[in-house]
Predict the structure.
Amino acid sequence: MPLLGIVIGSKNDEPLIQPALDILQQLNIKYELSILSAHRNPDKVREYASKAKEKGIEVIIAAAGAAAHLPGVLASWTTLPVIGVPLPTSELKGIDSLYSIVQMPAGVPVACVGIGTPGAKNAALLSAQILGTKHKEIKDNYEKYKQKLAEA
Amino acid sequence: MPLLGIVIGSKNDEPLIQPALDILQQLNIKYELSILSAHRNPDKVREYASKAKEKGIEVIIAAAGAAAHLPGVLASWTTLPVIGVPLPTSELKGIDSLYSIVQMPAGVPVACVGIGTPGAKNAALLSAQILGTKHKEIKDNYEKYKQKLAEA
Amino acid sequence: MPLLGIVIGSKNDEPLIQPALDILQQLNIKYELSILSAHRNPDKVREYASKAKEKGIEVIIAAAGAAAHLPGVLASWTTLPVIGVPLPTSELKGIDSLYSIVQMPAGVPVACVGIGTPGAKNAALLSAQILGTKHKEIKDNYEKYKQKLAEA
Amino acid sequence: MPLLGIVIGSKNDEPLIQPALDILQQLNIKYELSILSAHRNPDKVREYASKAKEKGIEVIIAAAGAAAHLPGVLASWTTLPVIGVPLPTSELKGIDSLYSIVQMPAGVPVACVGIGTPGAKNAALLSAQILGTKHKEIKDNYEKYKQKLAEA
Amino acid sequence: MPLLGIVIGSKNDEPLIQPALDILQQLNIKYELSILSAHRNPDKVREYASKAKEKGIEVIIAAAGAAAHLPGVLASWTTLPVIGVPLPTSELKGIDSLYSIVQMPAGVPVACVGIGTPGAKNAALLSAQILGTKHKEIKDNYEKYKQKLAEA
Amino acid sequence: MPLLGIVIGSKNDEPLIQPALDILQQLNIKYELSILSAHRNPDKVREYASKAKEKGIEVIIAAAGAAAHLPGVLASWTTLPVIGVPLPTSELKGIDSLYSIVQMPAGVPVACVGIGTPGAKNAALLSAQILGTKHKEIKDNYEKYKQKLAEA
Amino acid sequence: MPLLGIVIGSKNDEPLIQPALDILQQLNIKYELSILSAHRNPDKVREYASKAKEKGIEVIIAAAGAAAHLPGVLASWTTLPVIGVPLPTSELKGIDSLYSIVQMPAGVPVACVGIGTPGAKNAALLSAQILGTKHKEIKDNYEKYKQKLAEA
Amino acid sequence: MPLLGIVIGSKNDEPLIQPALDILQQLNIKYELSILSAHRNPDKVREYASKAKEKGIEVIIAAAGAAAHLPGVLASWTTLPVIGVPLPTSELKGIDSLYSIVQMPAGVPVACVGIGTPGAKNAALLSAQILGTKHKEIKDNYEKYKQKLAEA
């Protein structure tokens, strides 16, 4: 049963986050990838977020571009930690996505990482740090990963 | 029964939109003002938007600041036209609010107006234009209003 | 007789809005497409806007880039609702177009959508929502369109 | 008969350009100050711009904020040189005004100066340089002014 | 022994994060507040981060303004999750702080929240979500907090 | 003898302004094109600007990118009107050039046009408007040009 | 004889850099403060920069706002290292100053520090580092200063 | 023994700074190029900066992108002058790098140059100016270089 839920708004966003999925595999973290649109299908997003905890999910990563409501909407429906990845946009270059994700109102946090693929990779690592708080194996894997980075 | 629903995220935002309420009164447009948070209470927002049409509401105005998901979340739950008013924020000056409202993904439109009180006033007038498409009295009142502006 | 007038400043802008025209066709909304420059030929724009209502037009969509005065100038000459689409520009990426369209002074509203083609598509959908206030068939078509989006 | 026409959109903008009027007085340049709104009363703006040349006006200065269409609209209706002064706005700080004025499409130029009162003062000096091309007394006055600046 | 370490760069930043400390108290989360400068005293920061884990700290919150290296430098020295709060700056309004914190290179994540006090409050809540992954009492307290928000 | 001096900082900038040179030819305005760097060879710039008036030059156009001091430095050494064209830059997209040109301090004006080639074309037209103040043939040519634009 | 020349464009800028002067006094670095305008009096700036080296000056600090040409113009006339301090401006908040100073073209460097008084203080410290390359006493004083900072 | 240390965060950044290395060769300045990551290997950066002075290094150049902590972290560990080169990033175009480098807090200066390769070239020239304060041959070489630029 996966501890990590990953949500993207469209199949087209998958290549941007693929390197994050590779990192999760290296860290041996099981995840479930879902494609859900906050705007076109809010009911599926509500249902996903409302049931995530009881399914055993402990952290959610959501990547979105432009108005980028997906992470914030998920956060509104769950008490699990939500990590938001602002995806680049063709004109505003992801500044729109960044502001829409990072400037959440006091009361409902989203943990925002950098724009695009580097951010997605860091979202994977941040989820490892959070899950590692409880799961010793993930913590150990993450520490080895960081050690290898330093030696590279 | 009001034709126009106005939603703000917090009682604190009311003074910013008061001049818009004054314009609605001048145009003799009945409205219903609600305070609902997209992030703190998504279920109430879902319920509001889902039932707006059957209550007779034909246009929704939503004002919000920062990540400013309120107009987009309302638009995700209804097929009524939603007008979004980006409210100013203390640091990013409402650019965050603007980007979060105006950059909606293709498929779910929000009609965005300018930042702050001038935008709120224009939201009122835009709602009059939209309602005026169907309601002749509102159209006439709006045309008289514009005529007076030109003469002022 | 079309209910919707679409205005662009140059033939070159047509490909950017073509996907919006496709949506209008799907929704069975008749439109009239005109190419008019607010700066090079203000008199034609004045004439267009002044006569739109009596020709039966109920909503205007105007797409423009850079100083992007077209939507605002049309709005100055008519009381019909005007939807503005900020087109991308090669250097400022449409931020110039966005600010020039969305920051209209209080009194003369323009309904602004997102930058570029996603915005143009939403302009088409917003026009359907506005026309749907009065025309039941358009409302029904729009509701079916949104339903299909959710199921896609 | 004044050689210079100055147009502002609202009485409220007058204090921002007063220091420019003082410079014009020092340079002994007669001007005519008009308050005209491009959006609320486009017909008066059209009329003003269309008749400016035959009244003897040789240069127009227009100051405006936010969507700031006034200089561009004037330029669309006349072949006289138009100087645009972007006025500060409460949230976007005049960046909106700047982009709306400076990013005119090829074909219809506006001579843009800096944001706010320093820009307005430079608009006055620029009008002196332009008028000085033809009027020797104004050229001489401007040269003396610049000389004094250097010595100050 | 506190589970949460909070680091600010200067005593002057304390009032900005005080509302976050109040939330932590409500949630009954013990924390340790330290004042350490990444630039003026990098060795103390290194020492703090290197020893945090063995002291029992499980999450670090760091608030900083301008070049705002503090969260990233802490993250470079530890494998604990680090939450970064971008503080407002007098000229660039915290955009500098935001970019410096959120745009971490792939490999070393920082969980960024919004600019200023709303962000600081969300940092407190995010730390509760992360600690709640392991500590059931904190999870329960956070869920009650969110419930109360919804009812407010 | 040319009435118009055009200055660029580098041979590489010539293609960006070529369309402006074509317009000048259409308007039958003689010009002199010089390549001078404000930073690498300030003395040549000083000499050029100091002698421009006595050579018969009545207007100067200067195009520059990045820190873009060329128009302002020319303006500091002459009382002739200087038109500044902000050239695009690879990273900041000409926003750097725009701010460096348009934000001149009160006392020494530069007439700024839009970024890049559209701006360069408008610089040519603005120079025609300024020269047309005195030279009837140029005024007539410019008016015919604008007439043709309207008919195109 | 001072080793350091400080130039500001206007007496009004002096309070902004006063804390930098205090640091120089603490470090026992003699300086000469001049008020010179790059735009209003370019000849004095040329003369100052051309003669600085022979007067014994080894580093120049120049603070300026808006188009902020002063550091770049000084750098064009001398081979001494020039440190530029971007001063805040009322609307663009010193972003204009920053871009105008930092984006110097390849070939003529300016060493840019942060916006406003914190930047001015760092300009003083950077001048100490540069002078310290040659002057052992200044190096020692700077190292003691940094030591004290760390201990504060 | 090199007087100049150059540090980049990744082998990938080398092509961006290669033209700076060419200038250093022309100026006959020996340098040492190191690849060190502030985030992945802070201990190596600490060690490098702490030992630079005793190895004979007198100036450090550090180039970095995005959160771009490298120059500031080096500056925190040494009293040598540090020149920071903001590298371009794929979405934020190096504005993130620029703000992270230039907005250092008062007390720990970094000398920032322009974004990307033009900035890197100026960093080389600035290092020549700084080293030239003490080393007459470098000063002479730099002055010849600038002379040649003026003649080119």
Summary: The longest helix of chain B spans residues 117-132. The helical segments of chain B are 14-26, 42-52, 70-77, 95-102, 117-132, 136-151. Chain B touches chain A at residues 9, 37-40, 42, 46, 65-69, 72-73, 75-77, 89, 92, 95-96, 99-105, 107-108 (CB under 8 Å). The mean pLDDT of chain B is 97.
